[in-house]
Amino acid sequence: MNSLNDFFENLDPETLDGHGPVAMKDLVEEDNKNVVGTYCVFTPYEVIRAADAIPVTLCSTSDATIEDGEEDLPRNLCPLIKSSYGFAITDKCPYFHFADIIVGETTCDGKKKMYEYLDDVTPVHVMNLPQSNDRDIDFEIWKDEVVLLKEKLEAKYDTEITKERLKEEIENKNKERQAIKNFYELGKLNPSPLYGTEIFKVINITNYTFDKEIAIDRINEISEEVLERYNNGDKRISEDAPRILITGCPMGQATEKVIKAIEDNGGSVVCLESCTGLKPNDQLVNEDIDPIEAITEKYLNTPCSCMSPNDNRVELLNRLVEEYQVDGVVDMILQACHTYNVESHRIKEELKEASNTPYINIETDYSQSDVGQLETRLTAFLEML
Amino acid sequence: MYYIGIDIGSTGAKGVLYKDDIICREIMPTGWKPKETGRNLYYKLLNDSNISEKDIENVVVTGYGRVAVDFADKVVTEITCHAKGGYYLNNSVRTIIDIGGQDSKVISLDSNGQVKDFIMNDKCAAGTGKFLEVTINSLGASLDEIDEITEGVEPVKINSMCTVFAESEIISLISAGKNKEEVAMGVINAIAEQGKNLLKKIKVKDIVLFTGGLAKSSVIKDTLSKKINENIITSRDSLYAGAIGAAVIASEL
Ligand code: SF4
Ligand code: SF4
Fold first, then answer.
1. Which of A18-22, A213-217, B140-144 has the largest mean confidence?
2. Which parts of the chain are coiled coil (chain A) (predicted)?
């Protein structure tokens, strides 16, 4: 039997069924599907699916188009926003290319202002996100926004989004969330059977596999495979490796350097808390109540730093530190991301108070020029644990 | 048996030979080939102390050039080494501020000398040795004379902390009639201000040790002390703190 190393190396996204730009092209050109671009995990996925459209995340994670983005946007803006916008105006992102509408939320200032420009390229439907989630009024506002989105999509695609369809899509998405969860929760084992880069890769593959039946079957198989080999003694990570949780801004291809810097220097990344990892999958949508209310509740409670206060993130982190037996927390913050940068101080203090867990914040962008510096900081952090 | 610690910084490479005590210290410019510099330093330590390679038990290498070196028994970051070295120099030390050629850092230690927390400055050279060197040179002075020329001088205010902009600011200050001493003191004041900002991000605990190449300047130390309201100490081995730490770690392997 091959080793887990080989297994993951051979897991080539390009060759996977139902995955990637080609699969999307087929959906559009052969099955006449509509594509809705999204940027953020606040976007109610199920509502889009219930309109029979395919939601796809456009959050860009490469520095290839930052310069293009900077033609219209200021330099000292978060690279995620610049890169996403750059891809849009240069038509270099296949997913963006196929999207006929984009759903954005008023999360951080940079993003919401960028949507104004993006609208000239592809129409953007902006959902007004309340900046807190602990008052009744927040719930009401967000529920109205969910309904507005529903009506918008119904009109655009000349369809009706019924309660039944919503319920169906809630169940489907919950199934996928649960499957992703079952996978990344393997990281709770000690030593972890998975490298952080592999957790990242598999979640990414699942997100960009548009046929969800295939996606779910595949990730379930991967989980079984990993567990079986692990139980047969294929343990690649030392029990002494410090167990690291990464939190902060969404991660992507360019910022995988942070996971690598940790794992190349003896750490074991056991949990990726951010939007590109655990955050959207941790809570399921309640299947027993009115679907619109259930969706409203789930998405409004996303533990993102644009919420004030953001107690949910603190609670989540404290819980994860315990569940994953975390030795240290790395907060990856993109340059010029004010909300995560400001929140850094609170997270550090809260972790200290709750469990005395060491914390480091790493400010970075999409370039690879700071890899050496990142290595020094992260290695020193690992040496300290 | 002897142990060697080598600290390859961005400007200077430092090496220490150790056996119960520091036997020998060497320094040379890092230059463009950190790997060769590391080797040369190693042999220089051996030659100058008249011992042979087989007497060396372990070598630990640290500093930005640490990964380039191929003869290390272990590679350790400069944070951990500075902490070890600082604690070795004085075990009452609880905070270390190191201003190096390209970066500066503050390290907080517990009573056993373990790193509790640390912080490094950002990508650019603002407030580091490089900044001082470039700005002082543009005044036509050299690093060795800064203590002398700034004694009792009131600083002018320097606004730019970016090396590139500071240089042109300095030129305009001089052409506006400020004298070189005041401007030099202004630069030192700016560096101390940066150091203070870094220190503020970590809970400063007594005793504070100043390490790195700039630690030999008493005016920087005093200006910084005044700003943070704490007594800062240095050691004649401050420059070697990283290498000493590496050597001590080598002896514990
Ligand atoms: S971090 Fe917040 S704003 Fe950014 S993608 Fe995630 S939920 Fe959206
Ligand atoms: S990383 Fe921060 S600044 Fe960038 S889009 Fe997300 S919330 Fe906004």
1. A213-217
2. 156-183
CB atoms within 10 A of CB B166: 21
Name the residue of A39, A118, A249, A251 whose CB sits within 8 Å of the most ligand 2 atoms, as the mutation to test its pocket.
Answer: A249
Q: Tell me phi and psi for residue A162, to 5 degrees.
A: -85, 165
Contact assessment for residue B190 and residue B77, using Cβ atoms and an 8 Å cutoff: no
- Pocket of ligand 2 contains residue A146 by CB under 6 Å: no
Residues A102 and A90: their CA atoms lie apart, in Å, by 16
Phi, psi (rounded to 5 degrees) for B97: -115, 125
> CA A152, A59, A280 angle in degrees (round to 5)?
75
B64 to chain A, closest Cα gap in Å: 8
Amino acid type, A376? T
In whole angstroms, give the CA distance from residue B103 to residue A162. Answer: 60
Chain B residues lying within 8 Å of A363, measured CB to CB: 122
CB B38 within 8 A of CB B65: yes
CA–CA gap between residue A69 and residue A65 (Å, rounded): 6
Ligand 1: residues with CB < 6 A are A 40-42, 107-108, 249-250, 275, 302, 304, 306
The set of residues, in sequence order, having a beta carbon less than 8 Å from that of B140 and lying 6+ positions away, is: B180
CA B209 to chain centre: 11
DSSP string, A51-81: TTEEEEE-----GGGHHHHTTTS-SSS-HHH
- Tokens for B69, please give them: 């070196």
**Residue percentage of chain A with pLDDT more than 90:** 90
Q: What share of chain A is helix, strand, coil (3-state, %, to 5)?
A: 55, 10, 35
Interface probe for A, chosen from B117, B119, B124 (most Cβ of A below 10 Å), is B117
- The phi, psi pair for B116, rounded to 5°, reads -100, -35
pLDDT of A257: 96
Residue B159 tokens read as 């606004």
Q: Is residue B70 within 8 Å of B213, Cβ to Cβ?
A: no
Looking at per-residue pLDDT, the higher value among B181 and B96 belongs to B96
Give the residue whose CA is nearest to atom 6 of ligand 1. A275
- For A247-275, the pLDDT digits (tens) are 999 998 899 999 999 999 999 999 999 99
Q: Do B79 and A358 touch (CB under 8 A)?
A: no
Task: Report residue A56 as tokens.
Answer: 């796809």
Smallest Cα–Cα separation from B78: which of B100, B46, B93, B49?
B100
Could you tell me if B253 and B18 are in contact, meaning their C-beta atoms sit under 8 angstroms apart? Answer: no
Which is more confidently placed, A325 or B131? A325
Interface contact flag, B79 A384, Cβ < 8 Å: yes
Q: CB-CB: which of A370, A380, A383 is closest to B123?
A: A370
Tokens found for residue B171:
């030129």
DSSP for A284-346, please give it: PPPSSS-HHHHHHHHHHT---TTSSS-HHHHHHHHHHHHHTT-SEEEEEEETT-HHHHHHHHH
Three-state SS for B175?
A: helix
Name the residue type at position A344: S
Q: Is the pLDDT of residue B123 over 60?
A: no
> How many residues appear in chain A?
385
